[in-house]
Specification:
seven-stranded antiparallel beta sheet, binds zinc ion, 2 domains, alpha+beta, single chain, S-adenosyl-L-methionine-dependent methyltransferases, three-stranded antiparallel beta sheet, 12 strands
């Protein structure tokens, strides 16, 4: 009898250890807030009956990190590790799928917390306020929302070479400092490019990456976009893609001519 009781206690202890005890309070709190206590596999609302489990139980580095944590119901937790290699049926849960499914659930319960972001590099078409190497920048959160934070990183490319992110005394444009975005405010700023950007005739591009941080500290990375400088008419125009995508086309010698001709995407 005594042995039986000890076995039950051991099993319960082992089960509890498996689920979440080695995740810190902060990791668990974020998991539960970001999922709104829904299972990140089946999507069911769990209330109290939810566990924070490891996606990769055998992972060594960062085993109890936010990246390796997933809130799940009891049934899905059991299913995550259940797959008979000797008699394969169905499809097992792979780590990559679990992470993407978890992020899909998180997104569903946090995307409404962030506003639209209107970010513009100046001078835009028709403006005369800034001349290279000075560049203007404005950002306006759009819509109804509670105050949020953002990190902004601007990377410079000249003639296809990466000149790195914008460095300045106040690191507003290299992602090192958070912006406080309050409702109803537009922030206007400026930064300076390396002098050779103003002197050269090569293609000049800025890649803009904005990460919005919601009130529950979840990061929402917006897709990167580029601004190309039209040297003929002196303004920046928006490219709806990243430098990585554009790079191949920039190698073609006709690109500068094409930019000059169209001034648009
Ligand atoms: Zn579930």
């Amino acid at each position: 009898m005594r042995t039986h009781s000890k076995l039950i206690i051991d099993c319960l202890t082992k089960h509890n250890n498996m689920q979440s005890d080695d995740f810190g309070k902060d990791v668990k709190l974020k998991c539960l807030l970001w999922s709104d206590r829904h299972c990140c596999v089946c999507g069911k609302r769990c209330g109290l009956d939810i566990e924070v489990a490891h996606i990769d139980e055998k992972r060594k580095e960062g085993k109890s990190s936010q990246d390796n944590a997933i809130p799940v119901c009891y049934k899905c937790h059991a299913d995550m590790g259940r797959y008979a290699k000797w008699h394969p049926r169905g499809n097992k849960y792979r780590f990559e799928e679990l992470k993407k499914r978890r992020n899909q659930i998180y997104e569903g319960y946090t995307s409404s917390l962030i506003p639209g972001i209107l970010a513009v590099v100046h001078p835009a078409h028709g403006e005369k306020s800034f001349q290279l190497p000075s560049v203007g920048f404005s950002i306006t959160p759009v819509g109804l929302f509670t105050p949020i934070n953002a990190r902004i990183a601007v990377r410079v490319f000249l003639g296809g070479s990466d000149l790195g992110e914008i460095e300045s005394r106040k690191p507003y444009y290299n992602g090192k400092i958070v912006w406080n975005l309050n409702p109803g405010l537009t922030f206007n700023g400026n930064f300076r490019l390396p002098d050779k950007c103003a002197e050269g005739k090569e293609d000049l591009l800025l890649e803009l990456k904005i990460t919005v941080i919601d009130p529950y500290e979840r990061k929402h990375e917006l897709l990167p976009v580029c601004y190309t400088y039209n040297r003929i008419n002196g303004f920046w125009f928006l490219e709806p893609t990243s430098f990585k995508e554009l790079k191949h086309y920039l190698k073609q010698k006709t690109i500068q001519k094409n930019f000059s001709d169209s001034n648009q995407v």
